[in-house]
Write a structure and sequence with these properties.
- A hairpin with a 4-residue loop joins strand 4 and strand 5.
- Helix content is 0%, strand content 68%.
- The protein has a single domain, classed as Porin (Beta Barrel), CATH 2.40.160.10.
- A 16-stranded antiparallel beta barrel has the order 2-3-4-5-6-7-8-9-10-13-14-15-16-17-18-19.
- The protein contains no helices and 19 strands.
- The radius of gyration is 22 Å and the shape is globular.
């Protein structure tokens, strides 16, 4: 039994010679119980994505469009053009996904429902720039220069950089070591001073005036990411480590500062139509500590339809814990 049975199959639909499309529809329901808060339940279109692809002799291109209920509109996720310089070396330019990390960005290729605490908000996402990759028989190198590794801010004032080396020294074994960085310039954060006037029912704001505020000092955000995966028959196992530097956020649960993040994952396909993922993730950083355990059974209904369920417990080390129950109907085409 092949290990790829753990992920719903996806086949391209040919539109014309060299042109094709593929995509997926994610309909999800979740229930999140956080200590001290009311239970939050959702039912929504998590994502509907359509990817348009072109493949020629030496030129390829891809445009990904997606819709989510949370955004309420259609967004351009990716748009890039690639050029094969040789059988082993290629370039691409445009908007594309970071090379960093084991867990995939799109939910249609995840083994489980959710992204781990050690990856969500830590991995870079999509950015715009230029990338090159050399792929040998057992060894390869990837490098990119982008507008912002994490910020994707659309300007070239503070560029971001990624580099990754990867190897497959044995059948089923993959090892990838990557480094990502981005410089954030010194910025003045303006403040507003308000003056008040008396009113019959209290005070009203008479005037708002912008005044000098605090200074956000410039800093370099960076991460080292190492992951190893091994696939044999119906079993897939993976381990990942990330070293974090200057991971700052206004969200206290994401304001990691410096720290480490770990993930261990195992997926076993019991039959062609049923597999289960077990995952443990841990974040140990200046600003937060998280322990997370996940179990995610998947039911494969057909080549294009799967039902993914999940229970996840997150312990925020002194800030309470969270229990997540979730289910996803995934249709791929």
């Amino acid at each position: 039994m092949a290990a790829v049975a753990s992920v719903t199959a996806q086949a391209e639909i040919e539109l014309a010679e060299g042109f094709s499309l593929q995509g997926f529809l994610d309909v999800s329901a979740t229930s999140s119980d956080v200590d001290g808060k009311d239970t939050k339940s959702t039912a929504e279109i998590g994502e509907f994505e359509v990817d348009f692809l072109y493949g020629g002799d030496s030129i390829n291109a891809q445009v990904d469009l997606n819709y989510t209920d949370s955004s309420g509109g259609v967004d351009l996720e990716q748009a890039f053009v690639g050029f094969s310089v040789s059988d082993q070396f290629s370039l691409k330019a445009g908007k594309f996904l970071s090379c960093i990390g084991y867990e995939t960005y799109d939910v249609n290729t995840l083994n489980q429902f959710s992204h781990a605490a050690s990856t969500a908000g830590i991995y870079p996402g999509h950015h715009t720039g230029l990338a090159g990759v050399y792929s040998g028989d057992t060894f390869g190198v990837y490098g990119s220069v982008v507008d912002g590794t994490w910020s994707a801010d659309g300007d070239t004032d503070d560029l971001g950089y990624e580099v990754q080396v990867f190897t497959s020294p044995a059948e089923g074994l993959t090892i990838k070591l990557g480094y990502a960085t981005e410089g954030f310039e010194k910025k003045l954060i303006p403040a507003v001073m308000e003056s008040y006037a008396d009113a019959d029912d209290g005070y009203i704001i008479k005037e708002r005036v912008k005044v000098p505020g605090s200074i956000n000092p410039g800093f370099d955000k960076a991460m080292i990411n190492l992951w190893v995966s091994y696939e044999v028959d119906a079993l897939t196992v993976a381990a990942e480590y990330s070293s974090l530097e200057n991971f700052r956020s206004t969200d206290p649960l994401k304001n990691y500062g410096d720290g480490d993040a770990y993930m261990l994952m195992g997926n076993y396909a019991f039959t062609d139509t049923f597999n289960t993922t077990l995952r443990y993730a841990h974040v140990d950083a200046d600003g937060v500590e998280i322990d997370e355990f996940t179990i995610s059974p998947r039911f494969v209904i057909s080549d294009s339809v799967s039902v993914i369920t999940e229970y996840t417990n997150r312990d925020y080390a002194g800030r309470g814990d969270e229990d997540l129950l979730a289910a996803r109907i995934l249709y791929t085409f």
